[in-house]
Design a protein that fits this description.
This protein is an alpha+beta fold. It contains seven helices and nine strands, in the order αβααββαββααββββα. Helix 2 packs across helix 3. InterPro entries: Bact_HTH_transcr_reg (IPR050679), RCK_C (IPR006037), RCK_C_sf (IPR036721), Tscrpt_reg_HTH_GntR (IPR000524), WH-like_DNA-bd_sf (IPR036388), WH_DNA-bd_sf (IPR036390). This is GntR family transcriptional regulator. Keywords: Coiled coil, DNA-binding, Transcription, Transcription regulation.
Length: 204
């Protein structure tokens, strides 16, 4: 994101104003010609001219034809510096907000990429291990509870094969047709991709 850059002549105007505030340049004093100011601050004569124009527009100095630049007001120089500082603070805060938003946008894009990668990896795992069990906890209000696997005909109704039931802290592996599914049980089963949806529909 592009940064806000302050014009060189505006920075030179601030430096001259600071000299006035610090009483290095006194009110009523005649400053050197613009070409000398340019050499003093290490800038071109055009940059010095623009800086003096800024200060002149604000009533801080007054160019005097043939005799340099006269300092008019220390108070206005201080006001100019204060206003510039406030403007710079606002710009800095604005830039920080933009940087944070850009960072959040980058993080969001990275998260989307990671989620896409996770999806692809999950699909690959399912393809390589089609018998990985699904995990499902039936709704406690289901009328299918308190009944045995055999009576429910789960495989015939859903295409899912129950391979384990977690009842409280007991894991029952390879439960037979007489195993009963109770409220709060976790049912582990294998089957096709649509078997989870079929189990949910069956128990609901």
């Amino acid at each position: 994101m592009p940064k806000i850059r302050e014009p060189r002549y505006h920075r030179i105007a601030q430096e001259i104003a600071q000299h006035i505030v610090d009483n290095h340049f006194l009110v009523g004093q005649k400053l050197h010609a613009r070409s000398t100011l340019a050499a003093t601050f290490g800038v071109s004569a055009e940059t010095a001219r623009k800086a003096i124009s800024v200060l002149a527009d604000l009533g801080i100095v007054k160019p005097v034809h043939g005799s340099g630049v006269e300092v008019l007001s220390r108070e206005k120089a201080q006001y100019f510096l204060n206003s510039t500082k406030e403007s710079q603070d606002i710009q800095a805060t604005n830039q920080k907000i933009k940087d944070i938003l850009q960072t959040q946008s980058n993080n969001l894009n990275q998260l989307k990429d990671l989620l896409q990668t996770l999806q692809e990896q999950t699909v690959q795992i399912k393809q390589h291990s089609p018998m990985s069990p699904y995990e499902y906890i039936p709704n406690t209000a289901s009328d299918k509870l308190h009944q045995s696997i055999g009576k429910l005909n789960i495989w015939q109704n859903t295409g899912a094969t129950v391979v384990a039931i977690l009842h409280q802290n007991d894991l029952i592996l390879s439960p037979g047709p007489y195993a009963v599914i109770e409220p709060g049980d976790t049912v582990y089963f294998v089957g096709a991709d649509k078997s989870m949806q079929a189990m949910q529909q069956f128990f609901n």
